[in-house]
Amino acid sequence: MPLPARYGRWGPFLALVILTPLIIHFLNADFGSKTTQDVIEPAPGLTIETNNQTDPRTGHVPSSCPSLPGMEDVLVVIKTGITEAQDKVPVHLRTTLRCIPHKIIVSDFEEDIANVRTYDVFKNVSDTLKHGNNDFALYNRAREGGRQALTSQDHTKVANGPMGMMDNPGWKLDKWKFLPMIHTARHVKPDAKWFVFLEADTYPIWPNLLGWLSHFNSEDRLYLGNQMQIGPNLFAHGGSGFVLSHAAIHTVADFHTNHVDEWDKITDREWAGDCVLGMALALAGIPLTWSWPHVTTQSVWEQDMLHDAFSKNPWCYAPFTFHHMTPTDVDRFYQFEQQWFAETNSSVLTYSDVFRNLIRPTLADHLDNWDNFASTGDDKEEYNGPKTPATLAACADYCAADPECIQYRLTADGRCTTSQSVLRGKPQPGTQSGTMLWRVDAAVQQVEQCEKVTWVTA
Known about the structure:
This is N-acetylgalactosaminide beta-1,3-galactosyltransferase. Its main location: membrane. Helices cover 30% and strands 13% of the residues. By secondary structure, it is of the alpha/beta class. It has a domain of 220 residues: Spore Coat Polysaccharide Biosynthesis Protein SpsA, Chain A. Strands 5-2-1-6-11-8-12 form a 7-stranded mixed β-sheet.
């Protein structure tokens, strides 16, 4: 099965079959102005502990932490870099990583972040490579001058090439981290059964991870991740997070040790480090286990939880990660997750649980300054929606006329775009969004009731 282009908003989701629209409900819909605050304020609940953290030296877990049997066998590796670490990592240390006994932060700069020392992922990389390859310019500047050596160019966020932020020094350096961090992880905890690799904008749900891993044997050579493809190479998308078993990490680390110079050349010519790691794993005899929807490229606000992809419907699966989560997103979802597990006494959180309890309550007929990513008709040359000037009410009429339309959006330049997906979206000045709420509820009625959790096991 061919895979979608890397880093695009992928998801060739199958069309949703929904009930005939209840027009009378639509006529009663409220198109009065609402703000995002009307729908995303956290619900009041229990107080979530965020101050008392696991001791990074001993791995001692605070008594206030929930029990996570099996977590003592896992090493969590957070990959980051000097240009983002201080902004993105601290929130994890007081939330998602607070109760994790074994964790390390690997970076291109050694420093303290909230009293946790980062590992220089390039410490054991040859000086010849570090001083002879221009991709290491940021690393060398930072080693000599610290954070004061950073320039405005180092913080560029604009993609200026088909592969991403080609001119960003940190982006160019990042691909070199993947193979060295395998060695760092193995050195830190060689006896770990599982090695979990995440990025600083990846949100992990630990009970779901442990439930998922219980179906595997760490002595098998396993590589679990969100399938991506560049050319002929299948690999796990780094930002989605991926897992290596004890057997796999020792195998690929030994394999790389015997071919370091060759893999330096391969890394130099490729543009994606997660792809390079996937290539090394494949040549070491460790194929990728396609693990979507446990791991995903999207944030929780951009994830379609009702539609199929890769012949799977995520509804009854347990998500382990969401990607592109801002520090605010991490705080918000952490509160939701902790409250969910505390109040339900459940051992697993499924997509259906997330949708019913977090996403559905935040949807609205009309949101100002909000983008729900409804993109059908977004191409101006192929635009077939209402002619400008349009109103959101006219856009809603246009959506209502299509039985498969669920969400609609009025862009700042007056185009009405639609979608069969159901996404919460994010703030966007000048954009208005709306949802056919009764169609959402009808769609939910059409998906199965989850009598048990579904897992990817092969």
